[in-house]
């Protein structure tokens, strides 16, 4: 109770790729300083739908965001709104979709930086990736995202901080999941997290690293293939997760588990059992 949580979403990083490419995360697991499980996502495996699932504990079919098109603000109880209403501090370094979902329609010139305690995401740094194309991925450097997260911690000490990287998803669409570009970019996230996570742990955060969905060899996700649905779930913290190391966790459990660790009341709509026993 009363913990602070930093949740990292590595967009589009499937389970096997995380386990094979993330040498720092896996090294921490090997030394017993973190734990890792396989997690199964809800369906359909589309980014905005999964962002809302991770934050509402509901399947896309129930929360209503089933795709990236015509994205609109969340209409169900979610982590950001629940925390905001209970006077917790929230922050995010994330794609602008998160602004649309939890703070309302995104106007780049107004919202690229948000400092507004009335908003569900009170302190935000949002990126657009506008102009993304086959020769320029338009993704921020992973370490820049980590540094922005660190500055938000320094300035505001948020109770809940989301750090969302989109680069692997973009390269996966461009080159497929069966490509050096996809695999090596996954390692770049790991390499940046190796510099961020020790600081964040030192600053008193529990860190969770997961993904919204995976990617297949067509450079696609959205369906129900294991390669799209299986993601990693790493936990750096003192809470007790009772699931044994070979069990497959449920993505719907993230939202109530985060609220539980923070000591917030879990909305009735979040029905999945929490991951933590304490
Ligand atoms: Zn994608």
From TrEMBL:
Gene3D superfamilies associated with the record: Alkaline Phosphatase, subunit A
PANTHER family reported in the protein's UniProt record: BIS(5'-ADENOSYL)-TRIPHOSPHATASE, ECTONUCLEOTIDE PYROPHOSPHATASE/PHOSPHODIESTERASE
Protein's UniProt name: Alkaline phosphatase family protein
Organism, as annotated: Kiloniella laminariae
């Amino acid at each position: 109770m009363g913990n602070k949580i930093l949740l990292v979403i590595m967009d589009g990083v499937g389970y096997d790729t995380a386990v094979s490419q993330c040498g720092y995360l896996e090294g921490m697991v090997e030394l017993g300083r973190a734990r890792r499980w396989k997690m199964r996502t809800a369906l359909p495996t589309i980014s905005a739908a999964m962002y809302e699932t991770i934050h509402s504990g509901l399947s896309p079919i129930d929360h209503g965001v089933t795709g990236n098109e015509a994205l609109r603000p969340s209409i169900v109880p979610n982590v950001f709104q629940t925390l905001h209403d209970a006077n917790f501090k929230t922050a995010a370094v994330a794609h602008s979709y998160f602004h649309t979902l939890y703070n309302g329609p995104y106007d780049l010139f107004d919202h690229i930086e948000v400092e507004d305690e009335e908003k569900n995401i009170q302190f935000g740094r949002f990126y657009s990736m506008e102009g993304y194309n086959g020769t320029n991925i338009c993704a921020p450097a992973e370490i820049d995202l980590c540094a922005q997260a660190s500055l938000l911690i320094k300035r505001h000490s948020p109770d809940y901080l989301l750090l969302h990287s989109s680069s692997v998803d973009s390269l996966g669409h461009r080159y497929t999941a069966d490509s050096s570009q996809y695999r090596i970019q996954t390692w770049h996230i790991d390499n940046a997290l190796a510099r961020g996570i020790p600081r964040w742990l030192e600053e008193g955060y529990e860190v969770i690293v997961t993904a919204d969905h995976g990617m297949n060899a067509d450079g696609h996700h959205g369906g129900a293939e294991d390669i799209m649905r299986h993601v990693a779930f790493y936990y750096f913290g003192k809470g007790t997760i009772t699931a044994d190391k070979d069990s497959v966790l449920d993505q719907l459990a993230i939202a109530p588990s985060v609220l539980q660790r923070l000591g917030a009341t879990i909305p009735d709509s979040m029905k999945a059992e929490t991951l933590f026993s304490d």
